[in-house]
Design a protein that fits this description.
heterodimer, A: alpha+beta, 3 domains, 18 helices, B: alpha/beta, Rossmann fold, 43% helix
Chain lengths: 576, 429
């Protein structure tokens, strides 16, 4: 793949003529390539993107190319350690003790000297670029405040952050992920982006007024929304909320004033974002260079209200009327539904998003996923920071699942709101036991699933996973809080509910991007809809392994998993 | 490698100074002050040798100028050491410290001896004797020695120990070049050689040459040469020839391999002073050529990193036409006659006190760390070094372009101007 032309870093990060530059001559990785494309879209489509009150940009960035990563591993003799599959702790320690290549340190120090603003130090995987595979959320990103008064401290934070990203390349999670992809662990090479964070200072916090992810194809269309109209998710503060699968506000850009499909306004109140992430700019936190969130703080909506950042983001819950009232004029719990933007259109953000997604899709000639962050400073145009663009994988193979097939005698799982498109065969099933399942146990269940998943990945056996609540939820009360690496070997996933675990299906966009890119078939099963899971049959299958709350069984004959992406019908059948 | 000094280095240093003093239009008193050292010490060091005899060695210390801060400079153990050599080197140290803008003056010391012929115990006695003679005239706030030709971290520790014994306390900032863990700085060993390459890297960018397409020939195989070769090859360059001193034959040889020398391979067959075993080098496929051959190689970059006066009027014309850049890793390797020839050939010369200033810069970092007894990570040291070196290179290059000077004169103008200004500010002249 041809490397994009990126000028060499000239020891001046925010030189207006050189907002994207490189240190080193090696590959720049997938994320950097995406950002170069993002900058090109903004430049080439300036006229069609022009909107009063909106200023688009790609935040200034410098890329430390992957040859620095190679040199770091080689010159510090770290490869033998990697072969031993060290723990994340030993890996972090060894990487921290190692020295970055001498020839690029001066440039990094110049970055630290000039960039007196919060910086995001982000992975830019070469494998991701080569494979066009998603590694979102797999590798580390570290935010550093850049507010220390002296260059030395800023430089140390930057160096630690680069080493953190390097170490994250070989974390247990990343190794499991690559294994699931069929890649050899040593094949990965990492470039590192150092990028200005879009945001504003508020007291001891720095964060954007909102962050978001938009897909040009909607895997979860509801109500009048159509898949091709896309979907977007918004959160107050840093995008970590969305990446981690936390509560955020999802909407169709074609129908921005329609709330998510939940039962009641009260339910909406419970499901909306109640905390947000920011970069802490107060007193320095305890030194913990290998913690991703070292410089991050999580704050409640009360702080945001003091900061004035709820003005465009929140409505108010009126308990007497059991309804949500737009704006902040009355007291009451705040609800982050972004109504001032989505309903009242105080800022033309929806239009900006529609235009940018359309321009991006047109440029890539494929469905896209974009990430962005917005600041809404009073009296200034909204700054729309374009943070990422990548193609979104949508399968084009045709699979037909007739309505009648869902009721067949051979059906193990039936769903009318399945995701993905295609056919799989598995003989292994991992399911969370019905008996004894409690919401409070979900973190433990996640660990048990990890154990079962590891054994299956090592044995190269794809499997079907069945569990309750929102997969990958950041809130353990809403579902099983697994990371992708803990279930990465599953090729079919069933999300179902128990009577006391009635929550909306998960919407964590990074998680779903991974699922769809691995072409994992995803079945949402609502027993209330009359169709469900043949638990009795599953529980009679041969047990391979069992933990306190989960069971791994093997079927005598393969199970056939099929999803029809057009009708969203999905079925798991016993093969004759 | 020619060992006969064809030019008196002190006269050479003074001549260079006089020319730049003219460019700067310095007044007479400032010229008088700066063209000679502030202080000189010349003394005897009696040492009882292993065979029981007492041998008297000659030691020197010259403090050329300390208007900008304590004197700083190495201690050389060399059989051809002369006071004039030490004077010249002390003066160059003043300019070097000023050029990279560190708050130190210039000094230099030496002992007329050949450590090849001395046991470890005898070398220790030379070191301790040198400090005993000077204990009241050197120290962290007066004059800070460092390793130089044929002296090492071990020599510095002996000297430190003697100094601390005399003064009754711990003064890690008295001396630099100490081993890491004993008050030394991370990155100090690499600093001079890496600094040479930082300067080369910037010069190549200005010349619009991609380092990956360049070759280099290096004179010398000591610390500076080794680390310069290391980093230069790491950033993509190819070293095709390196020369080293052969102690047994008392001459030097050049070791050539067109496809590029293997640094670790040669280090494996070199003695602790960098002398390469020529028989084993031949076995490894190297051509073994006369020492001067390093100068004639078809390469883009020459790195003289041995002793002074190696590129002279009588051999400079043998420099190959492919050469675009000379980076002086050694002190004073190019004579003024050779400078003229090199300029005529259109070759850019990164002058010694710019190219090899990485050593003193890192020594300064070591002293800062020693004085506060807090030591930095290697990343931090090397990054600061790169920033200092790169900033110094561009300051020189910018001035050279502005005033249509060569890099050497531009560097002198910057450095001498800074020192002269400090002398004025202190009210000395």
């Amino acid at each position: 793949m041809t490397e994009p032309a990126v000028p060499r870093f000239a020891r001046r990060l925010f030189d207006p003529d050189r907002r994207i530059s490189r240190i080193g001559d090696g590959p720049l990785g997938g994320k950097a390539r995406g950002l170069v494309t993002a900058a090109a879209i903004l430049a080439d489509r300036r006229a069609e993107l022009a909107l009063p009150g909106i200023a688009f940009d790609v935040p200034a960035l410098v890329v430390l190319a992957a040859d620095a990563f190679d040199a770091f591993l080689d010159r510090n003799d770290l490869r033998p350690l990697l072969a031993e599959e060290p723990s994340d702790e030993s890996l972090g320690l060894a990487f921290r003790r190692a020295t970055l290549p001498a020839e690029w340190l001066g440039d990094l120090r110049a970055v630290a000297e000039h960039a007196r603003c919060p910086l995001a130090v982000r992975s830019s995987s070469v494998l991701e670029d080569a494979r066009e595979s998603p590694f979102a959320g797999v590798y580390g990103t570290k935010m550093i405040p850049g507010n220390q008064p002296d260059t030395d401290s800023r430089f140390r934070s930057l160096v630690d952050a680069v080493k953190f990203v390097y170490a994250s390349t070989f974390s247990r999670e990343a190794r499991a992920y690559r294994l699931a992809l069929g890649e050899r662990p040593e094949e990965e090479r990492m470039a590192v982006l150092v990028q200005e964070v879009v945001g504003r200072h508020h007291h001891t916090r720095f964060y954007p007024d909102l962050s978001g992810v938009a897909h040009s194809w909607n895997f979860y269309p509801s109500g009048p929304a159509r898949p091709e109209e896309g979907v977007a998710s918004l959160a107050l503060g840093l995008g970590k909320t969305i990446v981690d699968g936390g509560s955020c506000w999802s909407f169709s850009p074609a129908h921005p004033d329609r709330p998510p499909p939940v039962g009641s306004a009260r339910e909406l109140l419970e499901l909306t974002q109640s905390e947000f992430w920011a970069i802490g700019t107060g007193p320095p936190p305890p030194y913990d260079p290998m913690a991703e969130a070292e410089y991050l703080v999580r704050s409640g909506l009360g702080e945001a209200e003091v900061d004035g950042t709820l003005r465009h983001a929140a409505s108010t819950w009126d308990p007497a009327a059991e309804r949500i009232v737009p704006g902040l004029s009355r007291p009451g719990p705040r609800v982050l539904d972004f109504a001032p933007i989505l309903v009242r259109r105080e800022v033309p953000l929806v239009e900006a998003l529609r235009r940018l997604v359309a321009a991006s899709e047109d440029t890539l000639n494929a469905p896209v996923e974009i990430e962005f962050a917005v600041t809404l400073a009073p009296g200034e145009p909204a700054r729309f920071g374009f943070l990422q663009i990548r193609p979104l994988l949508v399968s084009s193979r045709q699979v037909d699942v007739a309505a009648g097939e869902l009721d067949g005698a051979d059906v193990v799982v039936a769903s009318t709101s399945a995701l993905g498109n295609g056919t799989r065969e598995v003989r292994d099933v991992v399911f969370v036991e019905r008996a004894g399942f409690e919401r409070g146990l979900t973190p433990k269940v996640a660990l048990e699933l990890e154990t079962l998943n590891r054994a299956l990945v090592e044995a190269a056996r794809p499997y079907l996973l069945i569990g309750f609540g929102r997969w990958g939820s950041a809130d353990p009360w809403l579902g099983i809080p697994v990371r992708w690496d803990q279930i990465g070997g599953a090729r079919g996933i069933v999300e179902t509910t128990l009577p006391d675990v009635s929550v909306e299906p998960s919407q964590g966009s990074h998680f779903f991007h991974n699922l769809s890119s691995f072409e994992v078939l995803y079945f949402t099963v609502s027993p209330a809809a009359g169709r469900g899971i043949d638990w009795d049959w599953l529980e009679k299958q041969e047990i391979v392994a069992r933990t306190d709350h989960a069971r791994h069984v093997r079927t005598a004959r393969p199970l056939l998993l099929r999803v029809d992406g057009r009708t969203r019908r999905g079925v798991v059948q016993r093969r004759a | 490698m020619a060992t006969t000094v064809v030019n008196n280095p002190y006269e050479m240093a003074q001549a260079q100074f006089d020319r730049v003093a003219g460019l700067l239009e310095l007044d007479t008193s400032t010229r008088d002050l700066l063209r000679q050292p502030l202080r000189e010490y010349s003394f005897a060091i009696p040492v009882r040798m292993d065979d029981g005899r007492v041998k008297v060695f000659r030691g020197f210390r010259v403090q050329h100028n300390d208007a900008r801060g304590p004197s700083k400079g190495g201690i050389r153990f060399h059989p051809q050491e002369t006071l004039d050599t030490v004077r010249a080197l002390a003066m160059w140290m003043t300019w070097k410290c000023a050029l990279v803008d560190i708050p130190l003056g210039g000094g230099k010391g030496g002992v007329v001896c050949d450590p090849h012929n001395l046991s470890q115990r005898e070398q220790e006695q030379v070191c301790r004797g040198w400090v005993r003679q000077l204990a009241r005239n050197v120290g962290p706030v007066a004059d800070i020695p460092a390793p130089d030709v044929m002296t090492s971290g071990q020599h510095m520790l002996w000297m430190l120990d003697e100094f601390e014994a005399i003064h009754g306390g711990h003064y890690p900032g008295f001396i630099t070049g100490k081993p890491v863990g004993m008050g030394g700085s991370q990155g100090r060993t690499e600093a001079t050689g890496y600094g040479v390459v930082f300067a080369i890297r910037e010069a190549l960018r200005e010349l619009d040459l991609d380092v990956k397409g360049t070759r280099a020939s290096v004179q010398g195989f000591g610390n500076v040469a080794q680390y310069a070769i290391r980093l230069y090859t790491q950033i993509g360059g190819t070293v095709t020839c390196v020369s080293s001193w052969d102690q047994a034959d008392q001459t030097s040889y050049a070791f050539r391999r067109e496809s590029g020398i293997g640094l670790d391979q040669l280090l494996g067959i070199a003695d602790r002073f960098g002398g390469i075993d020529k028989a084993r080098a031949r076995d490894l496929g190297y051509e073994v050529l006369p020492g001067d051959a390093w100068l004639e190689q078809p390469v883009e970059i020459l790195i003289p990193a041995a002793l002074e006066n190696q590129v002279r009027g009588d051999n400079a014309r043998r420099i190959h036409p492919a050469v675009k850049l000379v980076a002086e890793g050694a002190n004073g390797p190019t004579t003024p006659e050779a400078d003229a020839i090199v300029e005529e050939k259109g070759i850019r010369v990164i002058p010694d006190f710019l190219a090899n200033a990485g050593g003193v810069t890192c020594s300064y970092f070591e002293q800062v760390q020693s004085n506060m007894n807090y030591f930095w990570e290697k990343d931090e040291v090397l990054a600061r070094l790169d920033v200092k070196m790169t900033a110094a290179y561009h300051a020189v290059s910018d001035l050279a372009k502005r005033r249509k000077l060569d890099l050497r004169d531009a560097a002198y103008v910057i450095a001498i101007n800074r020192v002269a200004q400090a002398c004025h500010d202190r009210g000395w002249v």
